[in-house]
Amino acid sequence: MLLLIVCAAPWAGAEEKTSDYFQSHAVFVDLDGCGDPRAEEFCKFLAVDYRPWTQEERRRVREALDPVSSAPKLSVLISDFKKNGIKEIVFLRVYDDQDSAGSLVVNDRLFIYLRNQFFTSKSMYGTWSEQSHALAHEFFHAYAHFNAPQSYFSDPFWTSLAAATSWGYPMKTNANIVKSELNAKVRERVSLCKSGKFQEAAALDLEYSRPKGFPSLYSMTQLGEYFAELGSFLAHDEDMASALKPDVRAWLQEHQLGSLL
Ligand SMILES: [Zn+2]
User: Which one of 25, 88, 234, 260 has the fewest beta carbons within 10 angstroms of its own beta carbon?
Assistant: First the structure.
């Protein structure tokens, strides 16, 4: 009972700062496969190899979370999680070599699962880490979950963003993207990363995507990823805002995200 009161104290505090909220609501859950009862509802979505966290992995996630939770530009986003009743941001360790991170909101919990690549990716974008970028990216997916409850084929949040950024039905196509060219650039970027040339990979990425008005190569793959990349880069990269077209800036203002500019 005492433990419950102690645990609930930061959540109940009216004066709690949004950065404190992040720190006090980020929990690491150790799972040993889908057989663990705590994984049950989440395993319906993603049945993979869950493992307990190592101390070093926890330390690295905390380190990456710091710039995210302390970034003033993210306060709107963090308040939005609080407003939507998120009680915990649950970090799960998924042991495989697919992708880097993913997220899902189940009831009042935001689950963020981090895979092997999350820990091996090297920083490409200057002073903040690839890991901070990946975490902010997942937080923006969660923001979209609350602010666009319907699919992006019909929700005004998505259709208005699509209009501002030239995405057309079925939203995976964009008038400003030549798919074959994009795929070739993505392959080139992956190969640079594999040979440890991270600065070159970042340069290739941004030199191609930014003049076309996109945050990154990955943001050119579909509208949902565009939004998550847009938010993450606006929070961390001071060159992002000036690369945006007026329609996108207007869209951000209309959706209470003007503080990111
Ligand atoms: Zn994503």
Answer: 88
Q: List helix spans (H) across 148-255.
A: 156-165, 179-194, 198-209, 223-236, 246-254
Query: How far does residue 6's CA lie from ligand 1's centre (Å)?
Result: 34
**What are the residue boundaries of the structural domains of the chain, listed by start?**
2-121, 156-260
Centroid of ligand 1 to alpha carbon of 3 (angstroms): 36
What is the total residue count of the chain?
261
Averages of pLDDT over runs of 10 residues in the chain (261 residues) are 36 60 87 86 87 95 87 87 92 91 90 93 76 93 92 90 86 83 94 90 94 93 94 92 94 94 93
CA 173 to centroid of ligand 1, rounded, Å: 17
The token duo for 126 is 């200057």
List of residues 6+ apart from 91 with CB closer than 8 A: 26, 27, 28, 29, 53, 61, 112, 113, 114
Measure 227 CA to ligand 1 centroid, in angstroms: 9
Ligand 1 centre distance from Cα of residue 216 (Å) = 12
Angle of helix 55-70 relative to helix 18-25, nearest 10 degrees, comes to 160
Distance 246 CA to ligand 1 centre (A): 24
Ligand 1 centre distance from Cα of residue 60 (Å) = 20
Name the pTM for this structure: 0.89
On whether the CB atoms of residues 123 and 198 are closer than 8 A, the answer is yes
Structure tokens at 96: 């495989």
Residue 55 CA, ligand 1 centroid: distance in Å? 26
